[in-house]
Amino acid sequence: MAKHLRITGLVQGVGYRATFARQARALGLSGWVRNRQDGSVEATIAGNIQALERIVAWAEHGPAGAQVRSVAVKEVDDGVVTEGEFQILPSA
């Protein structure tokens, strides 16, 4: 199972991507996270349902200093994620 997240609010310049990546790796998730030019952060993650639910719940508040306004979640094909790998991608 895979999900795409789009997180808005004060989520850049506060360590959101690095902390998201640490959380995802600790939960055994695969995928990626990156900043967007519009100030949001997006991620595509794959793994078991419990781990996905936990990272989505974490994304709703993020690290200290973040001010999350919204987290949009949609299901995606898990074939878009390289299994066993989690990356921080360059901004898009």
Structure overview:
With 92 residues, this protein is α+β, with helices and mostly antiparallel strands. It has one domain (2-88): 2-Layer Sandwich (Alpha-Beta Plaits), CATH 3.30.70.100. It has 2 helices and 5 strands. It has a 5-stranded mixed β-sheet, with helices on one face.
Notable features of this structure?
92 residues; five-stranded mixed sheet; single chain; Alpha-Beta Plaits; alpha+beta
Write the layout of secondary structure elements.
Blueprint: E1 2-10, H1 16-26, E2 30-35, E3 41-46, H2 49-59, E4 67-76, E5 86-88
Query: Helicity, in percent?
Result: 10-25%
- What is the C-alpha radius of gyration, as a whole number of Å? 12 Å
Domains counted in the coordinates: how many? 1
Major beta sheet, strand line-up: 4-1-3-2-5
Any idea what the CATH architecture is?
A: 2-Layer Sandwich
Spans of 5+ residues with little confidence (pLDDT < 50)? none
Q: What is the CATH topology classification name?
A: Alpha-Beta Plaits
Tally of individual helices: 2
Order of helices and strands: EHEEHEE
Largest sheet: 5 strands, mixed
Percent strand equals 35-45%
